[in-house]
Design a protein that fits this description.
The protein is of the alpha/beta class and 281 residues long. The protein has helices spanning 14-17, 28-35, 43-55, 59-79, 98-105, 118-127, 146-150, 153-158, 179-192, 210-222, 232-236, 268-271, and strands spanning 84-88, 110-115, 135-140, 166-170, 198-204, 243-244, 250-251, 273-279. The chain has 12 helices and 8 strands.
């Protein structure tokens, strides 16, 4: 299942699932895993990631700042009593992932990961492990069909949607190019989730380094993954009607920074990603 660049040992997940992982083609989830220093990536992914880094030299820093934000925001939400999490567009579950952070704080936490890609499903099947007290599940689903995703059997078996749910759309909506479509997706979830639910989003922006981010978007498009960056006002609009948690909308590294993350030297241009968490009244 995992390609170990240190040992050269490779155990293809196709043998476990029968899914063609298309290892000869770059995949955005495995590219992100590479940025994070993971081992679930292959030569085609690393080649495409290299091109992305050439276009946007801060790609590794930005990815890791985004990941650290996920850790901090999850710890924040568990401290507020959130015990149910729905993480859409999870990608390769590079450890420590959201369920590990949540279940360290509350072993009874229940987490559903959702993604529309069979490549991610193949890897997730072997990498996701829950505490005995809690539950971790994987739901195949596409964020562009939020109704089907939210009402899928895996979500319904794991989460009680009559109670608050912490919804995460981290590093996902920039892969939904249409402005109205992205807005409608978020509004659907906001309408359906119970009061007290939370919404966590991170999103690529060209506000700080437009030329580099434009090059990065073009690299991903060439690799078969269309996307877009969004401005501060476009990003903030996703949270309309909900109460932003302090400090509101910030670049990822500025959201409740933790000295242990060692992100103090990262500039807004290097992060080039907005982050925020909001709660439904």
């Amino acid at each position: 299942m995992i390609s170990d660049r240190k040992t050269g040992d490779r155990r293809p997940a196709e043998q476990e699932t029968g899914i063609d992982l298309q290892l000869d083609r770059p995949h955005s989830a495995r590219m992100y895993d590479y940025y994070l220093g993971g081992y679930t990536n292959f030569p085609a992914d690393r080649e495409a990631a290299g091109k992305a880094i050439t276009a946007f030299p801060s790609a590794l820093v930005a990815a890791r700042a985004n990941r650290r934000f996920m850790h901090r925001s999850t710890r924040c939400l568990t401290s507020l009593g959130m015990t149910q999490f729905l993480d859409i567009g999870t990608g390769i579950p590079t450890s420590p992932n959201l369920h590990e952070i949540a279940q360290r704080a509350d072993p009874s936490a229940r987490v559903v990961y959702a993604d529309n890609d069979p490549i991610v499903l193949a890897h997730a099947a072997a990498l996701l492990h829950s505490t005995p007290e809690g539950r971790t599940a994987y739901a195949p689903g596409d964020v562009t069909d939020p109704a089907a995703l939210l009402h899928s059997p895996d979500v319904r078996r794991t989460l009680d949607l009559d109670r608050p749910v912490a919804l995460s759309l981290n590093a996902l909506l920039h892969f939904v190019p249409g402005a109205q479509e992205a807005h409608d997706i978020v509004e659907y979830f906001k309408k359906e989730l119970a009061p007290g639910s939370t919404l966590t989003i991170t999103h690529l922006t060209g506000d700080f380094d437009p030329e580099s981010i434009d090059r990065l978007v073009q690299i991903y498009k060439a690799a078969g993954t269309p996307g877009t960056s969004r401005t501060l006002s476009e990003f903030t609009a996703f949270f309309a009607g909900w109460t932003l948690l302090e400090p509101g909308v910030t670049p990822t590294q500025r959201w409740r920074p933790d000295p242990e993350d060692n992100l103090g030297g990262i500039t807004d241009a290097e992060a080039s990603c907005y982050a925020a968490v909001a709660r439904k009244p």
